[in-house]
Amino acid sequence: MSPDTNKESLPHPQWVIDLNTRPTPKPKAANIPDPPGYSPATTTTKRSTASKQPQLARKPPTTEETDTLKLKKSWELALAPAKALPMNAIMMYMSGNTLQIFSIMMVFMLFKNPLQGILQTNQVFTKFETEGTRGRLWMVKLTYVAMNLVALGLGIWKVNGMGLLPTTRSDWLAWETERVPLERAVFTF
After folding, report:
1. What does each C-alpha distance from 165 to 95, 146, 154 come to in angstroms?
2. Could you tell me which residues come within 8 angstroms of residue 52 by beta carbon, excluding any fewer than 6 positions away?
3. How far apart are CA 19 and CA 33, in angstroms?
4. Contact by Cβ (8 Å): 92, 110
5. pLDDT tens, position by position, 90-106
6. pLDDT band at 38 (very low <50, low <70, confident <90, very high)
7. In 33-174, where do the E strands start and end?
8. Phi/psi class of residue 100: alpha, beta or left (left: φ > 0; alpha: ψ in -120 to 50)?
9. In sequence order, which residues have a C-beta less than 8 Å from that of residue 154 and are 6 or more positions away?
């Protein structure tokens, strides 16, 4: 007996049998509808008859529909900085007000990303700009810049909390002159 014939005569493990056999179809309950987007599996005979029928071509979208879709996508992009604000605020709060490398890096990123966003506003929205959307896109760009300015305000709040903004009188003592008294009182005994 050769080793090849010995392997062929051995029965397959149960997992191989389960993998190669199709599951039995379960009866569908009449009162439970199919979920949205579900299409039941078709058998090969149904597939062959379906392939013989001509497929209906989907008509291309009009320019108005395309412009509306582009405008919706541009609004999603414009509001993206606002969606990141709660996460950034929690991270700034949790990093503390002490000067540590972690909090300094967080503040640096909080300033860098909005500034880059503001400087690249036109580049971000070029893929959405067409003749139909050009007049309506300025409000989207303005919202995008405003959301980035709010993120910058969060960075300024954090820097102020860390004590790095010169907002008190003692921060400007180098430029103040000493007061000259009008009179001097001297105690003599």
Report:
1. 18, 22, 13
2. none
3. 28
4. yes
5. 999 998 888 889 889 99
6. confident
7. none
8. beta
9. 85, 88, 89, 92, 110
